Amino acid sequence: MLRRQLVTGLLVTACLLVLLCGVFPLAVWGVGQLAFNHQANGSLVKVHGKTVGSSLIGQSFTDNAGNALPQFFQPRPSAAGKGYDAGASAGSNLGPSNPNLIGNNLDDPQNNPYRTPSDPYCVPVGADGGYQKNPDGTYACNPNTVPERSIAYRQLNGLAAGSPVPVDAVTASGSGLDPDISVANALDQAGRVAQARHLPPAQVVDLIHRRIDHRAWGVLGEDTVNVVDLNIALDRLGDA
After folding, report:
1. Could you tell me if 78 and 123 lie in one domain?
2. CA-to-CA distance for 150 and 74, rounded, in angstroms?
């Protein structure tokens, strides 16, 4: 009796191994290759036959010093490694009340001992009182806080001080790999990109509107623009 149960158990285990570890994975792979070849192989983006990225993973458009290239649309911040590192996908894990995210003394910035003329919510760089200072004596602020990112975003795009900033422009996604930005974020950058590329602003704005990915089924999520796709389209304007 015991032997029969043992044999039956081994046969069932062998059948399940073949089915779940062989037949099923091969069936899924086959369907993917036949019906969803592009998606199943990483949604790779190619330009002139050369792979330049994936439409599923964002990438930075900066110079060797890490400065944003003005002729390209910029993605949202990334906490994945040094930025959009697919091998280190992660968010900042900072809570919504953490000063390292939102800045110091939001209710009364006048009581922030580290405030600077440009950033009353300054979170200084350093620890245990050994905070870094600028040549003019003001504190060097953590560039990864929302207030500092907002200041940098306005300066980069020539926006007035205090003008609204899209939330995705100053916060990282949970994965750190989000390839999309909001339409408002793209439109804020249009003037700067047009100027850098010597293009009519209306042409760049039209390019944005033609590349909007609308919310799923008209109700889920928000309208977005894929940054890699948009920047490739910009380069193609120059090739035309």
Report:
1. no
2. 14
